[in-house]
Amino acid sequence: MTDQCLFCGIVTGDVPSVKVAEDDSTYAFMDINPGSEGHLLVIPKQHSRDLLDISPKDLAAVTVAAQRVAKASVTELGADGVNLLNCCGADAWQTVFHFHLHVIPRYRDKTKDRLELPWTPGVAGEKKTIAELGQRLSSALERASA
Ligand code: 5GP
Ligand code: ZN
């Protein structure tokens, strides 16, 4: 818990929210600026800043809780699909620095859905660069686990 954190305030109830679900380690609530009908956020109750900071245990719990509410968005709201989104770092669009997964129900009916794909699909990358970057990441992971 940090005093300045908005989402820690939501967990304690000091900041009001529309709660959807809760368990021992996670809390799910509606986003106040929804990108689609039923857009909600799932957070760990214990403060962590972002994807790089959260414990594997809390990350697993948040992901499982997100799957549960995603299923409800399909069965109850009639969503045609669901996006899970996490923004890690200001340059990746993170604005609230308490880890959260966006659960964004998606609809063919665009009156319920304002999202657009943020990159142009089908623009091929350079094969050599893709292979080099993949090799660097793979080697870094092998070094880290050695
Ligand atoms: P980010 O940009 O960090 O990935 O997402 C932060 C999300 O938190 C945004 O979608 C924003 O609408 C939502 N948000 C910001 N302030 C509040 C709030 O006070 N209450 C709720 N329920 N959502 C909030
Ligand atoms: Zn927090």
Q: So what's the overall shape?
A: globular
Number of helices: 3
Query: How would you write the strand order of the largest sheet?
Result: 1-2-3-5-4
Secondary-structure element string: HEEEHEEH
Beta fraction: 15-25%
Oligomeric nature of the chains: single chain
Structural class estimated from helices and strands: alpha+beta
Low-confidence stretches at least 5 residues in length (pLDDT < 50)? Answer: none
- The level of helicity is 25-40%
**Rounded average pLDDT:** 97
Rg to the nearest angstrom? 18 Å
Report the major sheet: 5 strands, antiparallel
* Separation of the first and last Cα atoms: 34 Å
The number of distinct β-strands equals 5
Bound molecules: guanosine-5'-monophosphate, zinc ion
Jot down its keywords.
binds guanosine-5'-monophosphate; 146 residues; 5 strands; 17% strand; alpha+beta
Describe this structure in words.
With 146 residues, the protein is an alpha+beta fold. It has three helices and five strands. A five-stranded antiparallel sheet has the order 1-2-3-5-4, with helices on one face. A hairpin with a 3-residue loop joins strand 1 and strand 2. The longest helix has 20 residues. The relative contact order is 0.15. Zinc ion (ZN) binds next to helix 1.
Summarize the structure.
This protein is an alpha+beta fold and 146 residues long.
